[in-house]
Amino acid sequence: MNDEIIDVLIIGAGPSGCVAASYLHAKDFKIKVIEKNTFPRFVIGESLLPRCMDHFEEAGLLECLKDIGFEIKSGARFIKGSQVCNFDFSKKHTDGWDWTWQVPRADFDNTLAKELIKKGVDIAFEEEVIDVLFENDISKTTLKDKDGKHKVIHAKYIIDSSGYGRVLPRILDLDKPSELPKHSSIFTHVKDIHRPIGKEGTLITFDVISTETWLWVIPFSNGVTSIGYVGPTDFLDSFEGNATEKLMQMLKLSDYFYERFKDVSFMFDPMLIKNYSKSVKQLYGKGYVLTGNSAEFLDPVFSSGVTFATESALLAAKLITKELHNKVVDWEEEYSKYIKDGVAVFASYVKEWYTGNLQKLFFHRPENPEIKKQICAVLAGYVWDKTNPFVTKHNRLIKTFAHFIDIENDEKKSVDKLKNKKK
Ligand code: FAD
Questions:
Q1: 14 C-beta closer than 6 A to ligand 1
Q2: I want to staple 126 with a disulfide (CB 3.0 to 4.6 A). Which of 79, 92, 146, 182 is the partner?
Q3: Element of type H or E holding 188
Q4: What is the CA(43)–ligand 1 centre distance, in A?
């Protein structure tokens, strides 16, 4: 038999696959990364969270990223009409990184992959995983190369980091409908010819057009800016025309950004991802683990995708290391529960964003600095910090505070009515 036998096969060379590969390679395991594309390749997911800096650092991938000069992201701005809410990652409840980057993912992911190759990791580009079988204690993966030739790899573990490829969820029938509302997104890159000078021109901004729709503006250090519109699928479907015409009409809805982008040309035809939220029935099984988008994707509103991709990849790599060293791993407790706990925090924030409750907290004035710090830590990706009440009581606190704000607003309205009557 000429089939290759290795310790760990990693499907996909996105941030998730690269972090897992880098960690396992440093532990001297025999690993291989299979990537169906050539790099650089475009992928969406350009605003990172400070928490992922911990992962790149631990995986030995931070220095190569620092060399590129990506745009620094030290917070995030949310605007709604004339209301503005700025988060500054240096003012957050949890200790940790207070900055990260805004990145064109083609360059970012290519930097990671090149660094892996420099370290000696075996990456097979333009090879696609087309089938996986689990037999006894070893998996048998069939690959197809660019010439259509098939080959087989046997591995003790598979880390599925295939993103929207969702290789194992498809093959093993693990897909589960997401509990989040059906939302879609349309996006492109522009040469930002009217970019304001100074901080305004570098700020990542979420422009809230209505409770359920919003526009992202993510400036990169190379003069290009990513713009994307998000909303309920049926609302996005209601715009007429091709993708470019649709996005132009959506840009008109932004009072804040229309002037800046009204005459820029799109660098590629806007791409549409429909019903982007994904979920699975289980995150692991005998001989495999799902990481990153292949496991779960919630929503782009809090930029959590890459951070979950790297958090899950690093943890999966550590647990596989443990098991390959003949130590017992409780995958349910040590992997599934941990990841699901973090996902649940962000899921509450996403749900409450679209009910409008979280937006009430963001735009309420005067701000409560303590609450803001706690929410800021969540937005920085520190969603496992049990000292943060906005982590531990994620499913209650947002609703409760939004309710108080409603009562306060009702009282204000009654007082105003009384005053007007007296006049
Ligand atoms: P990916 O980066 O998608 O990498 C997976 C790799 O697997 C790809 O290179 C692919 O070619 C390869 N692959 C797939 N199938 C196969 C196969 N059969 N064989 C071999 N290789 C295969 N996240 C953020 O953090 N910030 C954001 O601002 C953000 N914005 C988003 C906006 C939208 C509209 C959407 C839909 C998502 C957004 N995300 C964002 C999420 C982000 O795109 C993902 O979470 C992130 O890319 C996940 O990384 P990954 O490594 O899991 O997968």
A1: yes
A2: 146
A3: strand 183-191
A4: 6
Residue 423 has pLDDT above 90, yes or no: no
pLDDT bin (cut points 50, 70, 90) of residue 2 is low
Q: Give pLDDT tens digits for 79-124.
A: 999 999 999 999 999 999 999 999 999 999 999 999 999 999 999 9
According to the CATH classification, is domain 2-71+102-178+277-343 in 3.50.50.60? yes
* Residue 285, token pair as written in the block: 């099984």
Q: Which CATH number fits domain 183-273: 3.30.479.10, 3.40.50.1980, 3.30.9.100, 1.20.1250.20?
A: 3.30.9.100
- 350-355, Cβ contacts within 8 angstroms, sequence gap of 24 or more: 350/180, 350/298, 350/299, 350/301, 350/302, 351/180, 352/398, 352/399, 352/402, 353/299, 353/301, 353/302, 354/181, 354/183, 354/211, 354/212, 355/211
Contact between 78 and 208 under an 8 Å Cβ cutoff? The reply is yes
Ligand 1: which of 293, 299, 301 to mutate, judged by most atoms within 8 Å of the beta carbon? Answer: 293
